[in-house]
Amino acid sequence: MKKFLKNIFIVILIIFFLIAFSSSYKSLSIDNLAIVVAMGIDISDNNAFKISFQFTTPSSVSESGTSEKAPSKIYSVDASSISSGINLMNSYVGKEINLSHCKLIAFSEEVAVKGISKEIYTLINDTQVRPSTNIVITKCSADYYLENSKPLFENLLTKYYEVFSNSSQFTGYSSNATIGNFFNSLICHSCQPYAILGGVTTADDENKSTSSSNESNQSTNAEKDSSAISNASPLSNISNSENIGLAVFNDDVLVGELNSIETLSFLIIKNNLDGFLISVPNPSKTNSYMDLYLTPVNSVQTKVEIVNGSPYITIDCNFTGRIYSMENDSEYLDPKLLEQISDSCNSYLKSVLTDYLYKTSKNLQADINGFGKLAHSHFATTSDFDNYKWNEKYKDAFFDVNVNSSIKSSFLLTES
Fold it and tell me: Which range (68-72, 202-206, 280-284) has the least confidence?
C-alpha cells in the first residue's frame, strides 16, 4: 500500500512539473527566438532612431563542423527608442528578439555627437546584453557598416565580432572597447569613455597611395601609415568594414577621433601592448623612414601630481627593439649606428606621445587614459577629489614624457 501511494505521489509530482514549466519551455525554445548578433543605431529621416538588427540562424551562433559561411540578415525599423524598436521588430519577425548573443553595438557619428547616455543606460540595464559586447562608432551609417561586416577568415559572424578587436594587441591601431567599460567610464569622475572607430573600406583604389622606390615617397607613405583611420585607410581591392582608430567622448558626447598612431600612443600608456611595429626617421638617410619592432621592457610608469592647481603628469617608457626593414648597404651591426637609431626612436616616440597627450587634454578635453585615478592620492577624501572636478581640470594638464629604447640589429642578422 505504501509503495502504491509512493508511486501515485511521484506521478502527480511529474504532472505538476510538466504543467508548471511547459509554457516557459515553449517560450524559451530556440525555435521561438530571433538571435541578434549585432545592432546598429542611426538617425532616421523623421529625426527618430533607425535601429538595425543583424540576425543569424540559431545553428550559426555556436561552432560547427561546416565550412560554409554562416548566413545573416539585416532588418531595420524606425522607432523613438531602442526598447520601442525591439518591440516593433518582435511584431515583425514573429519571434522573441534575443540579445544574449549580440557581440557588437554600432552607433553612427550622427547619433554619437548628440549624446548616447540614455541608449547606453537602456542597453546596460537589459539583462541579455553582455558587458563584453563591443561598442563601435561608425564614420558611415551603422546599417551600412553592418552590411559590410564580412569576416575574411571566419565562418561565424559572431566569432568575427568577438575576436576582431584582439588585433590591437599586436598592431596598436585599435583597442578593445566594450559597452561595460563605456558605462563604467560614463559614471566615473576620473576618466572619460572611448569606443572603437569603425568604417567601410571601398574597393576603389583610385585615391589610394602606392609604394615608390624613391626616398621622398618612403617618407610620405610612412606618414600616411601612421595617420590611417577608418573610412580613410590605405587598404585597397577590398570592400569590407574596418576598425582603425578610436572615438573619444567627453561624458556621453562624441568630441573627436584618434588615428592609428594616436591609438598606438593610447595603448602604450595604458600598458595594453605586447609589441608593435613603428616607422621612425632613418638617421643615416634624409627623408627616409625605417621600421622597428618594439617590445616594452616593463610597464609604463605614470606619475600624477597637482602643481599650482593643475595636473602635472610624468610618463616613463622603456623599450627594446629590433630592426625590421633592411638595406644591403646599411651597417646595422655598427654600435654607433644602432645608438643613433635608438636616439631617433626615442625622439620620435616622445614627440608622438606628447602630441597625443596634449590633443586629449587641450583639444578633446577627455582623459581616456584614466590619469585621474592616479590623482586620488593627493586628496584627503573622495569628496575633495570630486570637488576638484578632474574631468574639467584635465584641459590644464602638463606632460613630461621620457622614452628610452635599446635597438638591436634585425631578428636574423646579428653578431655571432
Answer: 202-206
112-165 pLDDT, tens digit per residue, is: 999 999 999 999 999 999 999 999 999 999 999 999 887 766 667 777 787 777
Average pLDDT, the chain: 83
71 secondary structure, DSSP code? P
Q: How far apart are CA 407 and CA 323, in angstroms?
A: 7
Q: Rounded distance, CA 4 to CA 6, Å?
A: 5
191: Cα within 13 Å, side-chain hemisphere: 17
Alpha-carbon span 190 to 313, nearest angstrom:
14
Distance (Å, rounded) from C-alpha 174 to C-alpha 195?
A: 9
The stretches of 55-116 forming alpha helices (DSSP H) are: 82-93, 109-112
Q: What region, left, alpha or beta, does residue 251 occupy, with left being phi > 0 and alpha being psi -120 to 50 degrees? A: left
Measure Cα distances from 337 to 8, 63, 343, 411, 412 in Å: 91, 51, 10, 17, 18
Gap between the Cα atoms of 383 and 276, Å rounded: 40
- Predicted structure pTM score: 0.83
**pLDDT per residue over 3-37, tens digit each?**
655 666 566 666 665 555 554 444 456 667 888 99
Who's near 39: CB < 8 A, 6+ residues apart? 51, 52, 53, 54, 82, 99, 102, 104, 105, 106
Q: Give the angle subtended at the CA of 218 by the CAs of 224 and 169, to the nearest 5°.
A: 50
Return d(Cα 19, Cα 8) in angstroms, integer: 17
Quick check: 297 pLDDT over 80? yes
Q: Which three three-digit cell numbers place residue 218?
A: 618612403
Domains of the chain: 31-206+217-257 (no CATH), 275-416 (3.30.300.210)
Question: CA 44, CA 24: separation in Å to the nearest integer?
Answer: 36
